Amino acid sequence: MNSPTLIKTYLAGAAVRARRFAVFGASDTAMIEAAAATDLIVGVFEKVDAAQGDRLDVVHSGQTEIVLGGNVTRGKPLTSDANGAAIEAAPAAGANARVGAFAMASGVAGDIIPVLVQPCLMQG
Q1: pLDDT band at residue 5, thresholds of 50, 70 and 90?
Q2: One-letter-per-residue 3-state SS of the chain
Q3: Mean pLDDT in the chain?
């Protein structure tokens, strides 16, 4: 079965962990870990940790895996916690949250689950 994805290579703008949400760092070619539901999530880091300045791959769309920062139910939209890990997106009424992916399985904090990467904006 074919599972096309869009993967691009960048430089790590800081030390980053694998399978975390990615956001732009200080330049167009640097990526760092997301740190909040309001961060402009653009993808998910692939399966290798990287030190600052290392080259690393970011999945911008398609299927990959991510580390969970809390309980997640399959099918739910996911955003970032303070550590770049995935949590369910649940913005308050009138507030916005950046969605980075959708859960393809249920899990709890620390689990690694498959996700469909599809960055978008969600309003509560």
Answers
A1: confident
A2: CCCCCEEEEEEECCCECCCCEEEECCCCCEEEECCCCCCCCCEEECCCCECCCCEEEEEEEEEEEEEECCCECCCCEEEECCCCCEEECCCCCCCEEEEEEEECCCECCCCEEEEEEEEEEEEC
A3: 96
